[in-house]
Amino acid sequence: FLHNPSGDLVFEYRSGVSGAGDTIRNRYDERTRTWTRLTAAPLFYGGKARNAYPIPLVHGADGWYHQVWIWRESPWCETNHAISYMRSRDLVHWERAGGKPLDLPVSLATPGVVVDDVPLRGGAINGGQSIGFDLDGKLVIAYIKYDENGITQLYFARWMDGAWHSVQAGRSSHDDPLPAGRRS
Fold first, then answer.
1. From CA 74, how far away is CA 17, in angstroms rounded?
2. In this prediction, what percent of the chain has a pLDDT beyond 70?
């Protein structure tokens, strides 16, 4: 459950099953005591092939609702992949990070929404993403995935100069769990 900019109650759900379904948002009208679709089309379309796992929306001080999600190809968590992003001012009209409008529903084939094309079995976890803002109020997306050695790491992504740029938060390995100078 969440509230749209008008204060209406909005309910989000998946029509389908884990790994195969569409994400739909309905709006509750207190006057008529009825639910109606918030948008004519689902927010995310996975059909019978996959589904989106959106994290809770974040309404930033910048006035945008920020939405991050990951795709899953089956009921198995190791098929999570492709950290993705879009934003909206009203939860009805959506756009990519660079400002280009999106048509709903958003699917895996929708261009310009992937933040990091984490592959299947790449260590990404649904619900393992977070939306935050730096001291200048600029969006930062945090998420986990495997590094080049297959070790789970934290990454940060930021939209800069017309593209997403990701950096690994730190370096670690199973052989050397503490950085030099921090050993006791």
1. 9
2. 93
